[in-house]
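Structure in, sequence out. Go:
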């Protein structure tokens, strides 16, 4: 992946934010106070924050300049029209409905398209996406290829929809009982794994025959495009911008959490060419988010997204972004640390089941590693396993998904490769002393999206 010559960032640092360096004793105290849940740590007690790539990007000087040009009118502010133009040009969709963040867009979309009892097939669930599908009366059905559930399967496009599974499901359920296909780019829960353009075309071909809509979760579409450029025949000479436009042409619309690809700290949107969907969505956005020309955001936020959208398709930026993720992942692989392969676009995912094979699933191995990593070095990561998966709606039992992962998520344009070295050394140290990591039991469990607020104690 990485070439012989160093490929450095196509930007330089203009402003810095100091980080607090703490002692091990201090961090032992803090993780206890946080109920061994890294979501509940105070960020000031974190050294390197790899909890998420969401809303944690560094904005450019051009974006900050745009912040000063916020038009804070209640209706029809100029920044909305700038955003609309950016989305039309870069994503290729005509209609734009802003929302305060990705889940706001998912809420509106789910209510717009799902009738009680309908199904939404998709390439692996995402927490908030599935939640909103279910709240709107729908049922999520996983139709991702089997390889996506196998951390060591080196398929180049582990985010692909399994066309046979999808066909079989349509045959079984009936096309009229399918609300739409939820088709995610750089599939987060699979480890940031892309789908191929060929797969996108096949899904389009299959669903067109039935009149079933495709809605992308295009939250990390740019990172998906990078892998198409690198791995799929016919794309190496195309720009990320061209690839993105082609990708979007196979969908009826998308939801986006602008907090990722779009290089901003807050925001989201629905974009579509479907006039009816647009009409329904703007009727709902005024109920839940705000007027359809601001969607719960300030004018300045809309401007930052508009400018971020042009920056996110810069080929050199995307190259340096993904190379940094690979830099961390390859260091871990070299020392034999089990991670999801191929390395994804936004994060390195530690495979907790191979890291701690002796620990029972009931003791939440991924959650336990995340807590131990924080204590070791002040690096904050995130559990993506049984705690995130929650309970079965019918039986009330814990779901134990095949993937039990710890996500080391890399914010965009924020950390240096020396920070990646610090992280790698800490993970390697933990792996060498893995028998010392203690399991956890859940002592407080919220009813929904429990991973955000659950509390634990060592067993
Ligand atoms: N879709 C995907 C694929 C996501 O990763 C996220 C958020 C959302 C939708 C929801 O967007 O946070 O703006 O409401 N992912 C964050 C993460 C939380 O850390 O992976 P949101």
């Amino acid at each position: 992946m990485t070439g012989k010559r160093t490929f450095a960032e196509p930007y330089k640092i203009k402003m810095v934010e100091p980080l607090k360096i703490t002692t091990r004793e201090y961090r032992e105290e803090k993780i206890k106070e946080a109920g061994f849940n890294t979501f509940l740590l105070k960020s000031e007690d974190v050294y390197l924050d790899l909890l998420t790539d969401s809303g944690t990007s560094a904005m450019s000087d051009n974006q900050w300049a745009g912040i000063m040009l916020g038009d804070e009118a209640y209706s029809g502010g100029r920044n909305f029209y700038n955003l609309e133009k950016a989305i039309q040009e870069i994503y290729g969709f005509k209609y734009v409905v802003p929302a305060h963040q990705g889940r706001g867009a998912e809420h509106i979309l789910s209510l717009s398209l799902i009738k009680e009892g309908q199904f939404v097939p998709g390439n692996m669930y995402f927490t908030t996406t599935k939640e909103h599908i279910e709240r709107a009366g729908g049922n999520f059905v996983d139709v991702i290829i089997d390889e996506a559930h196998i951390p060591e399967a080196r398929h180049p496009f582990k985010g692909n929809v399994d066309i046979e599974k999808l066909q079989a499901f349509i045959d079984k359920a009936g096309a009229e009982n399918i609300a739409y296909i939820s088709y995610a780019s750089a599939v987060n829960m699979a480890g940031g794994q892309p789908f191929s353009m060929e797969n996108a075309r096949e899904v389009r071909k299959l669903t067109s025959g039935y009149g079933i809509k495709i809605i992308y979760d295009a939250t990390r579409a740019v990172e998906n495009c990078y892998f198409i450029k690198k791995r799929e025949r016919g794309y190496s000479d195309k720009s990320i911008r061209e690839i993105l436009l082609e990708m979007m042409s196979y969908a009826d619309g998308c939801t986006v959490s602008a907090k990722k690809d779009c290089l901003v700290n807050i925001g989201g949107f629905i974009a579509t060419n479907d006039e009816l969907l647009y009409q329904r969505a703007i009727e709902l956005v005024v109920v839940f988010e705000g007027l359809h020309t601001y969607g719960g955001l300030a004018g300045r936020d809309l401007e930052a997204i508009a400018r971020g959208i042009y920056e996110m398709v810069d080929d050199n930026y995307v190259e340096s972004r993904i190379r940094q993720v690979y830099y961390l992942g390859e260091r871990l692989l070299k020392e034999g640390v089990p991670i999801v392969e191929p390395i994804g676009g936004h994060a390195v995912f530690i495979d907790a089941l191979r890291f701690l094979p002796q620990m029972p699933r009931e003791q939440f191995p991924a959650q336990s590693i995340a807590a131990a990593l924080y204590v070791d070095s002040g690096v904050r990561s995130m559990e993506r396993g049984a705690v995130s998966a929650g309970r079965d709606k019918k039986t009330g039992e814990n779901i134990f998904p095949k993937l039990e992962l710890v996500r080391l998520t890399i914010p965009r344009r924020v950390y240096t490769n020396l920070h990646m070295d610090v992280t790698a050394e800490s993970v390697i140290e933990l792996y060498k002393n893995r028998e010392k990591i203690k399991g956890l039991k859940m002592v407080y469990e919220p009813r929904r999206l429990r991973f955000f607020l659950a509390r634990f104690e060592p067993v």
